[in-house]
Amino acid sequence: MIQKILIANRGEIALRIIRACREMGIKTLSVYSEADIQSLHVQLADEAICIGGPKSADSYLRADRIISAAEIADVDAIHPGYGFLSENAKFAEQCESCNIKFIGPKSKSIRMMGDKAVARDTVRKAGVITVPGSDGPIDNETEAVKTARKLGYPVIIKAVAGGGGRGLRIAHNDVSFAKEFHVARNEAEKAFGNGSVYIEKYIEKPRHIEFQILADSHGKVLHLGERDCSVQRRHQKLIEESPSPFLNADLRKKMGKAAVKAAEAAEYQNAGTIEFLVDAKGDYFFIEMNTRIQVEHPVTEEVTGIDLIKQQINVANGEKLGFDQGDIKFEKHAIECRINAEDPARNFTPSPGTISLYYAPGGHGVRVDSHAYSGYVIPPFYDSMIGKLICFGSTRKVALQRSYRALSEYLVRGIKTTIPLHKAIMSDPVFIEGKATTAYMEDFMSRTPTDLF
Ligand code: ADP
Question: Is residue 452's pLDDT more than 90?
Fold first, then answer.
């Protein structure tokens, strides 16, 4: 049984894991960089070990130092959170070989789904529809142009090792394709150390709808419903909600079944997410699987009442999931706004620095997952998310009104944040009517005066 967990992460997700562990009577060890000494995850864990310099490459990405810390502190398991080493198959393997439980899927599943071309192939063979595209990676330009023409423009060029919205390039004709193909390959090589790319048909104005998966080590694979993450900027999510205002019961059932099939094909264990794009006609296409807990997991937790982090730990302990698909009830509507230290009026420039005053909203149906506090200095080295506001209620209307109310109470002084932007979106008729596609943000920004934020 797991008695002590090392949390190989920082920020709000590290706190989220500490909270679950406390409630389960499990001891926690935080690791931190020199830039995070004042962080709450260091202060709230039972123990903390500094693992290196401020840059991620010198600390949170140093598998060797994290494993050494785990051995020194005698932990039973490592929770990787999201980002950093969470989808690194080699790290999961190292944990496995050191007899430390990796709280996530087996390294084999991470490897299979981590290469997006292999993932497409795997789920397609299991009968799940993928976006029309190339059969595997394409490295030769002539062959790539031929494939693009056959698919019909526009197409999207994607890095097989891609993630976080990086390494995606759209091409509208042969000329732009030739240019974007090389840019994409170079970018992918730099960002992921792997220049391999594949091509997909670019779906116009789709919705991004993903299914939360939970699977145990005894072969049970369940889904916990969907999250609509169509509100994105530069392919990065800003707002997520569940249920999706677009899906009807029939489509939800079909997509849920397809998601379970995809996870089964990956021999999946633990929590993961199957991502789909859905076009205006309601046709859905698998795009990728994320083999870790996601930023937006609280939306599902509030709708279903299931604590995903505790479930992850139970599954890693070898326990059976204590419920079946039919037992999962979707009784609420939840909306999450990502609060980033960025200036939306200035092209979302990062706004690190000292938070002079911090006051988080509360009250009925409001959850804030954040590591921020008054006096906290946001280091410039990591991603800009400083918190998540999750508002929920019996209907979408209540969740929307509650989000607007909570955003109005949320005070973060001394830095710029996305709070005023979220307020503007919560009062925008297109979003209120549930009509947002992945093209929504570009349109919203073009018709909204920036002095509103
Ligand atoms: P990443 O792993 O970098 O997050 P994804 O494959 O998940 O990349 O895609 C991220 C986002 O890019 C999607 O949510 C969607 O907005 C857009 N996108 C990806 N593939 C397509 C496609 N074939 N057509 C249209 N948009 C796409």
Answer: no
103: left (phi over 0), alpha (psi -120 to 50) or beta: beta
pLDDT tens digits, 104-121: 999 999 999 999 999 999
Check: CB of residue 55 under 8 Å from CB of residue 74: no
User: Residue 417: phi, psi to the nearest 5?
Assistant: -140, 175
Q: Tell me the CB-side half-sphere exposure of residue 121, using CA atoms within 13 A.
A: 12
Kindly state the average pLDDT of the residues 365-380: 98
Kindly state if the Cβ of 235 falls inside 6 Å of ligand 1.
yes
- Tokens representing 283 are 């046709």
* DSSP structure class, residue 274: E
Ligand 1, pocket-test mutation among 204, 232, 287, 294, most atoms within 8 A of CB = 287
Residue 148 beta carbon below 6 angstroms from any ligand 1 atom: no
Q: Is 166 a catalytic residue?
A: no
Phi-psi domain of 83 (left: phi exceeds 0; alpha: psi -120 through 50; beta: other): left
Q: Residue 80 corresponds to which tokens in the numbers above?
A: 């990787």
For residue 165, which atom of ligand 1 is closest to its CA? Answer: 3
Whether the model pTM is above 0.90: yes
The dotted CATH code for 132-201 is 3.30.1490.20
pLDDT at position 165: 83
> Could you tell me the CA-to-CA distances from 340 to 56, 85, 149, 192, 416 in Å, in that order?
19, 22, 39, 24, 8
The second-level CATH assignment, the architecture, of 207-452 is 2-Layer Sandwich (3.30)
Domain extents in the chain: 4-103, 132-201, 207-452
Residue 164 has pLDDT above 90, yes or no: no
Helices 107-114/116-125 angle, 10° precision = 100
pLDDT in tens, 309-326: 999 999 999 999 999 999
Contact 212, 224 (CB under 8 A): yes
- Does residue 167 register a pLDDT over 90? no
**Cis ω before 154 (30° cut-off from 0):** yes
Residue nearest to atom 23 of ligand 1 (CA): 202
The one catalytic residue among 227, 252, 292, 402: 292
**Domain 4-103 belongs in CATH node 3.40.50.300:** no
